[in-house]
Amino acid sequence: MRRRELISLFGGTAIGWPLAARAQQKAMRLIGSLCGVSSETYAPFFAAFRSGLSDTGYTEGSNLAIEYRWAQDRPDRLPTLADDLVRRNVEVIFASGGSPLVAKAATATIPVVFVTAGDPVAMGLVASFSRPGGNVTGVNIFTAELVPKRLQILHELVPASRPSPCLPGVGRNILFQR
What we know:
Layout: H1 3-24, E1 29-35, H2 39-55, E2 64-70, H3 78-87, E3 92-96, H4 100-106, E4 112-116, H5 120-123, E5 136-140, H6 147-157, E6 162-163, E7 176-177
């Protein structure tokens, strides 16, 4: 190898290395979190939330920033907190603890992801389950509403089963015996 080729090789590498290093850095993503309660109330849920994000390659402080807004059980503070997240131009708003409707009212462009135990259609969060429409989507925790359906499926799987008398006084027994 000649001297000029060697200098070109190392010189090109020295010039290109900072550009390659810069190209490999991931952009910092910005998530907004809006919650109607205190941080202590939701601490275990947010630990799981961050763990799930980490499983997908996003680590808070590394390639992800989360702007937390807590209303501290004061719903009157939620609109101001939601407006602040919109002004900060977060990429998505995670709304929980009584805040999904407020987040929806604050923006029509930033995606809003909610967690609620209520019916999102009846609450006015989404148009329907199959086609939520708009910028709002989320998770609904149907528990009581699904019990009859679960019992129906269980009875179809085990047709000879009948309700167990071990839970007297309960509207619909959930234990079956053969």
